[in-house]
Design goal:
125 residues, alpha+beta
Amino acid sequence: MNINKDLVAASSTPLVLAILAEEDSYGYAILSRVRDLSGGELEWTDGMLYPILHRLERFGLITSRWERSESGRRRKYYRLTATGRGQLLDEQRQWLTVDQTLRRLWSTLSESTDGAGLSPLPDAS
């Protein structure tokens, strides 16, 4: 499946904030987490992730620090701030509203007499 670039871009902030709400993390680990969570459907690149991280840091939603890994390699870790946690809650409310609205609409379409070519949606739970 090819996911629309606009949808990928729109979902990037809540995805990064939610991953950092789980725990502090670094670039490669965030990319891997997105790929795993999406079942491989979302394949972000460094070129996409780092501008997002820089923007979130500039807005005070995350902070960063350098640490050495066990192998001695330096890694930049990112942490969610209190402001970022508030933004994540707001993003979550917005996305749930969009999800519920689309599910209701698509459910109605799939039940209509012509079906509009839509199949029933899987249960979100």
